[in-house]
Amino acid sequence: MLYTEGRPIADGTAPDGPIEDRWSRRRFEAKLVNPANRRKLRVIVVGTGLAGGSAAATLGELGYQVTSFCYQDSPRRAHSIAAQGGINAAKNYRNDGDSIHRLFYDTVKGGDFRSRESNVHRLAEVSVEIIDQCVAQGVPFAREYGGLLDTRSFGGAQVQRTFYARGQTGQQLLLGAYQALERQIGLGTVTMHSRHEMLELVVIDGRARGVVVRDLVTGEIETHLADAVVLATGGYGNVFYLSTNAKGCNVTATWRAHRKGAYFANPCYTQIHPTCIPVSGGHQSKLTLMSESLRNDGRVWVPAQAGDTRPPREIPEDERDYYLERMYPSFGNLVPRDIASRAAKNVCDSGRGVGTTGLGVYLDFADAIGRLGRQAVADRYGNLFEMYERITGEDPYEVPMRIYPAVHYTMGGLWVDYDLQSTIPGLFVIGEANFSDHGANRLGASALMQGLADGYFVLPTTIGDYLADGPFDPVDADHPEAVRARADVDDRLRRLLAVDGDRTVDSFHRELGQLMWDHCGMERSDAGLRKALGEIRALREQFWRRVKVPGDGEGLNQALEKAGRVADFFELAELMCVDALHRAESCGGHFRSESQTPDGEAERDDERFSYVAAWEFAGADRPPVLHREDLTFSYVHPSQRSYK
Ligand SMILES: Cc1cc2nc3c(=O)[nH]c(=O)nc-3n(C[C@H](O)[C@H](O)[C@H](O)COP(=O)(O)OP(=O)(O)OC[C@H]3O[C@@H](n4cnc5c(N)ncnc54)[C@H](O)[C@@H]3O)c2cc1C
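Above: query sequence and flavin-adenine dinucleotide SMILES. Below: predicted holo structure tokens.
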């Protein structure tokens, strides 16, 4: 048996009534904490990316006692710094027909009708405030000649609502959040622990009360306790080994919480980004994104004939297939990511892929350079072009880029209600770590929007409703549950070191990633997923017999860090395959080969699958329990998505 059925789950905190009023109603109805009492309340925030950094800074500003953790050497090295293309907001500066309702509509539709309307509407409302907040912090967004903030297009939208800072939007936004965080560290409201990795959650009397962390430099294991815990620990795309994520991104914090009772929602929803530099060989440990913003001006094409190996500039116009423009004339090169990725796979599968592996398509700027001039293109994308040239040795001003889809983002994550609280009271989850707003496919430039919405605006309000009942009974590190959590961490580290086998952690990770890519990647099938499940279990068993972790736990040991993360990836991978297997429909980033329309588009099955799949951990050797949260649509009615 792969899984068992549990009781349905409902989001008990989302208000009803007109959708435009729900967030303001929740804000009004949420209990407030008097400023004098905030000083007595302690909150742990794990993660200092855009979600965690903004949350810790804002909670500190509100006067809570915040303790913040990250595993990097500085909070501002969080993976958010890699974000390139931009952040969406319904400002309508362009006067091109944008509105909060349109951003809401595009996001629900873009997510293939697998997200909650209430959450997405709130996200669209808050998007407007985020830009003001960041501008006030001094984030240097691009401006047009009149001085207004400039915007560009991203996939899945016909308006230009993406604000950007060249190709470094994440870095600039993170510097804004980091400065706000540093201010609070200086003021003493936030205590920062960098180079600390959370390895366990402490749950006492049914409430999240703390974390067990390892000091990555000294190896010391520490217990930290508080009135509430916030996880802002990012996504788990690295389960695929090769992805565009920073190498450190992992699932450990959320997976440990899952094992302690937090449900994991829609784990199989993975975003495969269409514009990444293709894999060039077995030596690679990471893939590189070429921002979606490039699709504003770059045209995607392949040779019209299979087997045409001429250099791109020698292939005449009428022997090229600009397949996205041909298949989706309304949106052209700016169709959403899931659609662009699948189309690239299909043309490559039909033998028309380019490059030595045949797994690539062209992204060509010749038209844009002819129309706008080289300097204008350099002003928009210069740093991306330079990055491409450094990696491939080819000059994209002269020859088209070669791109191919790669794992980029995970829509799945810990289940949270409208208040961003998980199924463990007192455990809140924000940013990419939760499952909340993107359904089965995230639109470009919406992750930064969600992370900052959660961190600057939503969580600081909703956590107050929970903390208003605190401070909770004092607990200390000698509490039996805290002692047990710490002992579990010690025991696991000892076990990993004790195996002393003959295979590196990376070799297992690479093999696991390949299995996931082959069977739970761009296309999934019943047979493939069943095969993967068997192979993942066998590989996991081998991992615990043969992994070699050199050194000890008494100091810096990156092999030990990786081993713990890969051990958790093994368990997650299994749940991802079970989730993908049970969802016998195609939707968004989850494409089941058995469920497609005659022209190869994803075929949803709303009758049977219009729900969030929230998985409960039932024990190491027991199948997970499925809890369904039904999705209802009153404002954006599910239809076959069309970008034609
Ligand atoms: C190359 C690239 C480009 C992108 N470009 C865009 C873009 O243009 N627009 C857009 O909207 N989105 C973009 N995204 C997606 C976006 O960057 C991420 O979804 C977002 O930044 C995630 O933010 P976060 O705060 O949730 O997590 P992260 O930024 O991943 O931060 C996670 C934090 O948690 C900490 N952490 C994790 N586990 C532990 C642990 N166990 N113990 C202690 N600390 C822990 C880390 O140290 C880190 O501080 C891009 C993604 C990539 C990969």
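The radius of gyration is 24 Å.
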